Amino acid sequence: MNTKDKKLTSIRLNKNLYQHLQLKAKEENRSVNNYIETLLYDASEYRTPNEETLAAMKEMQDYDEGKIELGGKREG
After folding, report:
1. Cross-strand bridge partners of residue 70
2. DSSP helix/strand/coil, 59
3. Does the structure show a pLDDT above 90 at 75?
4. In sequence order, what DSSP letters do the residues of 28-51 get, joined into one string?
5. How far, in Å, CA of 67 to CA of 58, rounded?
6. Distance between CA 26 and CA 19 in Å, rounded?
7. Domain locations in the chain?
8. pLDDT tens, 17-50?
9. CA separation for the pair 68, 3 (Å, rounded)
10. Are 31 and 25 a contacting pair, CB within 8 Å?
11. Spatial contact of 63 and 69, defined as CB atoms under 8 Å apart
12. pTM here?
């Protein structure tokens, strides 16, 4: 992900928690920021669609709007 796609934010954490996160990040040879971001992705079950999924979503939107036909004929 490009850093231009990111939102700079600030949060307050308990000092002991932050130290724990630093240790865990170091164990995985990652930055604290990257470690926390990954934890948040996993905990929130957030997933960004890949290019193939985005293309399929666009195709279905075009189909629903009658702009294209699938499989050679329009159903419905």
Report:
1. 73
2. helix
3. no
4. TT--HHHHHHHHHHHHHT-----H
5. 11
6. 11
7. 3-45, 49-76
8. 999 999 999 999 999 999 999 999 899 988 888 8
9. 36
10. yes
11. yes
12. 0.59
In this structure, which amino acid lies at residue 75? E
What is the CB neighbour count within 10 angstroms for residue 57? 11
Structure token digits, residue 51: 């290019």
Residue 5 confidence (pLDDT): 83
Q: What whole-number distance in Å separates Cα of residue 57 and Cα of residue 50?
A: 11
How many other CB atoms are there within 10 angstroms of residue 29's CB atom? 6
Angle at 18 between CA 12 and CA 45, to 5 degrees: 80
**Of 74 and 21, more confident:** 21
φ/ψ (deg, to 5) at 43: -65, -35
Ramachandran angles phi, psi of 55, nearest 5°? -65, -40
